[in-house]
Amino acid sequence: MFSPEGPSLRELAVQALSSVERGYDLLAPKFDHTPFRTPDAVLDAVESALRRTGPFDAGLDLCCGTGAGAGVLAGVCRERVVGVDFSAGMLAVARERVRPAGPPVSFVRADARALPFGPAFDLVVSFGAFGHFLPRELPGLFAQVRSVLRPGGCFAFPLVAPPRPGSLGYWMLLGFDAVMRVRNALWRPPFVMYYRAFRFGDVRHELARAAFRVELHALPEFGRRRDGSPRVRLVVARTPD
Questions:
Q1: What is the mean pLDDT of residues 212-241?
Q2: Which residue among 135, 145, 170, 178 has the highest number of C-beta atoms inside a 10 angstrom radius?
């Protein structure tokens, strides 16, 4: 799962026993060599889908980490791109490594639950960050996203179809979440990373409560499951014009 340039088991253990912020500060120099980074295939597919939806003027990468999503936004936005994350370590790596062609890119340290922007963006994207938010935090998170979007703006993120009950992937996710819950019951500060907590039915309901109109776009690059449903969808939540 990890390349030779990735973190050691000891480094991962230290990260897992830290807070989320401190853990990502520690992991940042090697983060791009872990499976936690969004694969380029997903980034490319999302950019292709957004090209069919855009173009956009200003874009925000929510929980940007080391800046992988900034390249997506730079490909579909004309004026500027901003990445926001609460890990100073991850942002330091992003500022050093991200040099996409296109509009200017900047990075801001802030909590996604208290964004320091007005309605200045036409597009907000996020990649792989929602497992770090508890279900009760979603209404506030989506309200924050709504507050930084201009009229007619959209909030887009890829969503992988959940593994089928009983499959290897299902038991792996179940086991990971169980380990995290035991860890958080026994150790402080908590490290919130629950991949099974982000259920689309709940997410769609909370997006609607935040006055978004939700669309689903299949990403054909990843094919379909046996029942014909897409393996990966792009969720596009739009604000009223």
A1: 91
A2: 145
